[in-house]
């Protein structure tokens, strides 16, 4: 009896998450420029960096593996960037549409909303980064999967998780501070880029920033990626560290989200949000 | 609800509000702009946390236990919208799923026919007229056949013909389903037609309570609108 009830509850919960995903799929497919945009920016990035890498490799002292390092970094960085935007933009869509109040009086639970945002983020990231990675094969003769091999999955998952954490914090801040703060979605991510050692090793950073980089999962991912491409060595320790840091960040972002949601409920912001 | 209060900084939107509504009752919340109607509704729905007091809705403490009853409640408000790019059908499908409605397609067909939505079911919600949008919002509020239907200004943007049809529909829905109807409105004729009980708020306090006829008699006025104007302009409710 209890087992049946909990199975029903899980079924209902999954149904609500599917409903939220359906809502965003409807939105995405309602306008082809939206779908195109998902692939457009990662493709622009990969094309630009591909040519820069080609030019640098042809200079005296340039090394042949430079293109692989730069293009892998671009695509893995975009994984983090897209996954963060995937969460925060999907959340802000509800605010722009003045739909958040309806959602919060429906049976949808906050954790179901968050998990559906994560699922949408995964879909957007796979379309965007996956599309760009596929285009890099004919344009630059660069195959991300072949270059990084199985560790690519771990690099991808770690950057995805950190993107979700940041996306959740950005969403909560925009809910609390209002849509005037929506530029946080872009501003924070580029601030983090500076200390994530995307295109240069952590050792290049001044010492205080190296301490900051030490607690950021993407910094571990990019160090691991460079080691793999330059030395052919897969450093499991870096990936374990990235995963542990992600667990910490995910917990912190979940707490921040719930606290700011509670504060929005106290201040009456759930009924006022909109453009 | 008992001793309900909501403060925003130094100001109070709702003060020491206590009342109960029987299941199946049809109650109107009246008051001038800023009297605390929307704040009260938001607290009943769990969208806003009270500063003091307690609320019990369908047997559950709100906001703490709101998830136990949210599938049995629904509402419509002019302060909220539905995603503009989604078609009416898509929006209603999403909400039918969110509320766990069995046979969502059947329910959508029913609502489309009863609220006359068929002609624009596949049009983006953002391209509807104000009146069409109001009907769609009401369809969303009815998608789960709620036991408690909370409506904030349900006919505000409708022409007299559509407003009359909608009131008839709400009347029928409440009678057939036994649902509790709780509405905030500035339209006194609507309140007199739909509600058997009126709660009149003044500056966040309950100023008067009774059936429309009782209130008119008690205040020695010709109609509910005059009662409303007296309380809004001069105060002087029951207490």
Question: Would you give an account of this structure?
Answer:
The complex is a heterodimer of chains A (275) and B (239). The longest helix of chain A is centred in the C-terminal third of the chain and has 32 residues, at 236-267. Chain A is mainly α and 275 residues long. Chain A is built from eleven helices and no strands. Chain A is globular, with a radius of gyration of 20 Å. Chain A has one domain (2-271). Chain B is of the alpha/beta class and 239 residues long. Chain B has one domain (2-84, 146-234): Rossmann fold (3-Layer(aba) Sandwich), CATH 3.40.50. Chain B has helices at 37-45, 88-98, 104-114, 130-142, 160-177, 188-194, 212-218, 224-234; strands at 2-8, 11-17, 26-31, 52-57, 60-62, 73-76, 148-152, 180-184, 197-202, 205-210. Chain B has a six-stranded mixed beta sheet, with helices on both faces. Chain B has a four-stranded antiparallel beta sheet with strand order 2-1-4-5, with helices on one face. In chain B, strand 7, helix 5 and strand 8 (180-184) form a beta-alpha-beta unit. In chain B, helix 2 packs across helix 3 (104-114). Chain B is globular and about 50 Å long. The mean pLDDT of chain B is 92.
Alpha-carbon distance between the termini of chain B? 18 Å
In whole angstroms, the N-to-C terminal distance of chain A is 47 Å
Which percent range fits the helix content of chain A? Answer: over 70%
Largest sheet of chain A: none
Q: Over the alpha carbons, how many angstroms does the gyration radius of chain A reach?
A: 20 Å
Number of continuous helical runs of chain B: 8
CATH superfamily descriptor of chain B: P-loop containing nucleotide triphosphate hydrolases
Strand order of the largest sheet of chain B: 6-7-8-3-9-10
Q: Give start-end ranges of low-pLDDT stretches of chain B.
A: none
Domain module tally of chain B:
1
Helix fraction of chain B, binned, reads 25-40%
The secondary structure category of chain B is alpha/beta
Poorly predicted spans of chain A = none
How many strand elements of chain B?
10
Overall domain count of chain A: 1
């Amino acid at each position: 009896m209890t087992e049946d009830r909990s199975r029903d509850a899980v079924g209902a919960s999954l149904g609500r998450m599917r409903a939220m995903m359906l809502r965003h799929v409807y939105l995405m497919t309602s306008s082809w420029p939206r779908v195109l945009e998902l692939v457009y920016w990662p493709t622009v990035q990969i094309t630009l960096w591909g040519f820069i890498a080609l030019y640098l490799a042809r200079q005296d002292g340039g090394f042949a593996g430079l293109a692989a390092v730069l293009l892998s970094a671009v695509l893995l960085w975009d994984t983090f960037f897209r996954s963060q935007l995937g969460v925060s933009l999907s959340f802000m869509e509800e605010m722009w549409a003045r739909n958040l109040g309806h959602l919060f009086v429906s049976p949808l639970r906050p954790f179901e909303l968050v998990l559906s945002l994560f699922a949408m983020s995964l879909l957007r990231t796979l379309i965007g980064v996956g599309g760009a990675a596929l285009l890099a094969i004919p344009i630059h003769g660069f195959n991300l999967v072949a270059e990084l091999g199985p560790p690519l999955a771990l690099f991808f998952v770690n950057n995805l998780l950190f993107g979700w954490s940041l996306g959740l914090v950005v969403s909560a801040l925009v809910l609390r501070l209002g849509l005037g703060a929506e530029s946080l979605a872009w501003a924070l991510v580029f601030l983090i880029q500076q200390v994530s050692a995307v295109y240069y090793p952590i050792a290049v950073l001044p010492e205080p920033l190296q301490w900051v980089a030490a607690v950021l999962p993407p910094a571990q991912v990019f160090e691991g990626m460079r080691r793999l491409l330059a030395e052919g060595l897969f450093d499991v320790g870096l990936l374990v560290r990235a995963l542990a840091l992600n667990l910490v960040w995910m917990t912190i972002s979940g707490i921040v989200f719930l606290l700011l949601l509670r504060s929005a409920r106290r201040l009456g912001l759930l009924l006022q949000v909109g453009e | 609800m008992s001793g309900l209060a909501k403060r925003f900084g130094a100001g109070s939107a709702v003060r020491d509000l206590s009342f109960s509504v029987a299941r199946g009752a049809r109650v109107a919340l009246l008051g001038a702009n800023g009297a605390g109607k929307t704040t009260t509704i938001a607290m009943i729905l769990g969208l806003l946390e009270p500063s003091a007091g307690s609320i019990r809705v369908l047997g559950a403490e709100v906001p703490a236990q709101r998830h136990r009853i949210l599938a049995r409640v629904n509402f419509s408000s002019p302060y909220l919208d539905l995603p503009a790019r989604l078609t009416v059908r898509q929006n209603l499908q999403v909400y039918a799923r969110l509320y766990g409605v069995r046979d969502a397609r059947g329910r959508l067909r029913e609502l489309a026919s009863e609220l006359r939505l068929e002609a624009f079911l596949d049009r983006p919600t953002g391209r509807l007229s104000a009146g069409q949008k109001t009907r769609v919002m009401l369809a969303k509020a009815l998608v789960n056949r709620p036991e408690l239907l909370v409506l904030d200004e349900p006919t505000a943007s409708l022409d007299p013909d559509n407003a009359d049809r909608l009131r008839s529909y709400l009347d029928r829905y409440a009678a057939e389903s036994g649902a509790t109807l709780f509405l905030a409105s500035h339209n006194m004729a609507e309140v007199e037609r739909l509600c058997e009980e009126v709660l009149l708020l003044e500056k966040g306090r309950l100023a008067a309570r009774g059936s429309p006829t009782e209130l008119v008699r008690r205040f020695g006025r010709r109609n509910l609108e005059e009662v409303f104007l007296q309380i809004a302009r001069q105060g002087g409710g029951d207490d």
